[in-house]
Amino acid sequence: MTDDATGSAPTQIGDDHYTCEVSIVNEMGLHARPASLMVGIASKYPCEIVIYSGSNTVDGKSILQLLSLSAEMGTRLKLETRGPGAREAIEALAELVRQGFSETS
Amino acid sequence: MEIFRGIAVFSGLAIGRAFILEPDDVPVSRHRVAVEGIDREITLLDTCLARLAEEIGEDERAARDRFGREISMIFEAQRSMLLDKKLRDGIVDLVKRDQLSAELGTRRVLREYISFFRGLRDSSFADRAADLIDLERRLLGMLTQQTPTDTTDTAENTILIARDLTPSQTAALDRNRILGFATASGGRTSHTAILAGAMEIPAVVGLGDFLEHVQNGQMVILDASDGTLIIDPDQATIDRYKKVEIAPARSEIDLKELRDLPSVTSDGEPIELMANIEFPNEAAHCLEMGANGIGLYRTEFLYLDSKDQPTEEEQFLAYKKVLDAMGPERPVIVRTLDLGADKVLERPSTIVENNPVLGLRSIRLSLREVGLFKRQLRALIRSSIYGNLRIMFPLVTTVMELRRCRLILADVMEDLQEEGIPFRRDIPIGMMVEVPSAALLADQFARLVDFFSIGTNDLIQYTLAADRTNENLATLYSASDPAVLKLVRTVIRAAERHQIEVCVCGEMSGDPIYAPLLIGLGLRQMSLTPHKIPEIKKLIRGLTLKEAQRIAGRVQRLDNARDITSFLRDRVRRIAPELVHGLD
């Protein structure tokens, strides 16, 4: 799996400020279960986490907002983290999305 | 007697008395609070949020013990929705700014989310509204200290009737007394529907406006195998259903039992199920799975396994082995070499290809390397006396290619005859239809071959110009695309007109959601991975030809892959819910 197929590697755009693009690869899209996993990881980091999908911008720590994106398989998301732990947070989140939220079915 | 139709989410038959669960709109009595009461209101909200989070955590643990982790995630997700900071912030905002009571604030904020989710186009996301309704109901119950209605005091043999059931209500159903449930709203991807499947409780959702037609205690028949609810049935209907009343559907498919059953629709139309194989020793496994023959024997392994090109004798022995295993009657369709030049030629390749998928491969290579092609054909024709051999050419793009194939084949037969080697002259010859040009000219090709085999993997790739392994194009590459389906239909029609056999191999035929559609389009032969045969057979046995044709007719009116896929999933879920997988 290359970076190219599933998005870019995180890029630093400032002090403790990172951005990265990922595609939703799991069949069911960003549904309740994946969104819940994502929020679980996001909440571990003190930094601010913003997720962009098309013209929508949501808080990466809010499952309700994540679900409101109705991001299905193939949707491209831009992640942005800023503040303490920004680098670790973006790496963990990008990995989660790329692994298809470890969804096997 | 009245009959309503909905979406079956777990099949089975239940006959019992209706128990109507009234929607518990927890009434909100306190609307406003005084300025000095604001802090108390927020404390109350926080206490209730914490308590409810705890309760849902217990639901989650209980669900994990009963149904496993996949199902318990439903409650974990509910818990994170409840603990979403945006939710609390929204409520606190209304309390502080507008001096609303915590309960009214809760209702306002949750209703706003609920109506937002209901309005989403994708029904599987819209189904999340039910989770929020569950939260609203429980949180309001706590804030106002009212107990939401439950189902614990129902009589035996009850069929639960409701506008909607929330996941927590569903999980709390007592299976000893409640035989099944029917709801007005709800979709196939709702968590309630998924729970019904896990609990193996017959359930029909999305029945629409039926609540005013049913009364408490009335006799009802819930036939969740076809998604019907019969209210106040007459005696004849009850007797008819009592006769077929069976134990709750099993979730496991009994392979052994299915193996010996014929592959026919429930109204008797035979559908031949054949197997795709790669190695000769897979043949025995195919018989175990109940295959009617080999629909696609890929011969590439012979070339990839050995350093040198395989000799005629090596190939002959491999083909003979498969034919011996399958016996004299069952067809064995062998596809000639389907590889690119780089994989086959001994000499260092002088051909540089910018785009190998559109390059010199498959039958194009065989027609260029005639020596190689003739060797394979000789081995094949020699093996023909050992069974019901059929030969198939891959990637045929033009009529001229096919004519050349047939000429070379005739040449090889002539040689064998001169050498006095026995073979069958009447070997059926077919072609793969996997290039759009071949599908479009199916009428012309049908005059030149004895059978078609539609190779959907390549046909999709070439029709939609999308590489199936490219994750960025995952939504583009789809067997449900109406353009692909139109080509499939064209090929099946041409085969019907010219009275030749047609089969679909490729992953499409192993995916349960496409089986009814393909049969409805007129297909009577499918070739698939052997281990998929039992479940597809089971599906076919629960399907009527008429139903399949109706499905095909409806699909024709849809204009995009997404709608077609969800329509097909929905239909197949009604016929065999255990075959349509995927939790959300």
Give a description of the structure.
- Chain A is an alpha+beta fold.
- Helices cover 32% and strands 27% of the residues of chain A.
- Chain A contains four helices and five strands.
- In chain A, strand 3 (48-53) and strand 4 (56-59) form a beta hairpin.
- Chain A starts with a helix and ends in a 7-residue tail after the last helix.
- By secondary structure, chain B is an alpha/beta fold.
- Chain B contains 25 helices and 16 strands.
- In chain B, the strands form two sheets. Chain B has an eight-stranded mixed sheet with strand order 1-8-7-3-4-5-6-2. In chain B, strands 15-14-13-12-11-10-9-16 form an eight-stranded parallel sheet.
- In chain B, helix 11 (283-288) links the parallel strand 9 (272-277) and strand 10.
- In chain B, helix 1 (38-67) packs antiparallel against helix 2 (69-82) and helix 16 packs across helix 17.
- The radius of gyration of chain B is 30 Å and the shape is elongated.
- The chains are: A alpha+beta (105), B alpha/beta (584).
- Chains A and B meet through helix 2 and helix 3 of A and helix 2, helix 3 and helix 4 of B.
